[in-house]
């Protein structure tokens, strides 16, 4: 792995964006995966990662209750052992504290299913439809302490159709997430923060 940037991917569920990232990190890609880490030991993405030969770990957030610092300390112990250069949040459904984000400042990415700065947080597709938007999409951004507010590193746009529901729109955006995130990671791992714009 000499010369490659080491990547840890954090997930909470099935890991479709994680799978797209893993599939991309081959050949001449400047990065390689060293860990897939989840807050849910039953997350489907862990089995996918193991099948791809990537080390996995899980820290169940539930026993920690409201003690986010203790939960993040356990996450950090796994990350310290893997020593990643870059962290990719891929459907990781826990809000991270400013302290955790600060320790990884400038090297943590996230994908969000809206055209940020529009619609940070949840229910993005429903909010886009309610607003009468003609375009929706997804954004990869650098993670900062403020939720979904870091510098934009890439966006993919899709048209909003007259008969769209939140589920239909989400289903059309998802394949673009799977193209955008790997494209941004490739560029970011090579030291280039110029935003990727798709299609």
UniProtKB/TrEMBL annotation:
Under the heading InterPro entries, the entry gives: Formyl_transf_N (IPR002376), Formyl_transf_N_sf (IPR036477), GART (IPR004607), GART_AS (IPR001555)
Q: Which CDD domains match?
A: FMT_core_GART
The record's active-site residues are 112 (proton donor)
Q: Which reaction does it catalyse?
A: N(1)-(5-phospho-beta-D-ribosyl)glycinamide + (6R)-10-formyltetrahydrofolate = N(2)-formyl-N(1)-(5-phospho-beta-D-ribosyl)glycinamide + (6S)-5,6,7,8-tetrahydrofolate + H(+)
UniProt keyword annotation of Transferase present: yes
One Gene Ontology biological process: 'de novo' IMP biosynthetic process
Q: Which residues form the Formyl transferase N-terminal domain?
A: 6-185
Q: Which residues form a coiled coil?
A: none
Q: Which domain of life is it from?
A: Bacteria
Known EC number(s)?
2.1.2.2
Which residues does the annotation say bind N(1)-(5-phospho-beta-D-ribosyl)glycinamide?
15-17
GO terms under cellular component: cytosol
Enzyme class, first EC level, given as a word: transferase
Which pathway does the UniProt entry assign to this protein? Purine metabolism; IMP biosynthesis via de novo pathway; N(2)-formyl-N(1)-(5-phospho-D-ribosyl)glycinamide from N(1)-(5-phospho-D-ribosyl)glycinamide (10-formyl THF route): step 1/1
Site Raises pKa of active site His — annotated at 148
Cite the binding residues for (6R)-10-formyltetrahydrofolate.
Answer: 68, 110
Q: What does this protein do?
A: Catalyzes the transfer of a formyl group from 10-formyltetrahydrofolate to 5-phospho-ribosyl-glycinamide (GAR), producing 5-phospho-ribosyl-N-formylglycinamide (FGAR) and tetrahydrofolate.
Q: NCBIfam families, from UniProt?
A: PurN (TIGR00639)
PANTHER family reported in the protein's UniProt record: PHOSPHORIBOSYLGLYCINAMIDE FORMYLTRANSFERASE
Q: Which family does it belong to?
A: Belongs to the GART family.
- Name of the protein in question: Phosphoribosylglycinamide formyltransferase
Which organism's genome codes for this protein? Rhodobaculum claviforme
Q: Gene name, please?
A: purN
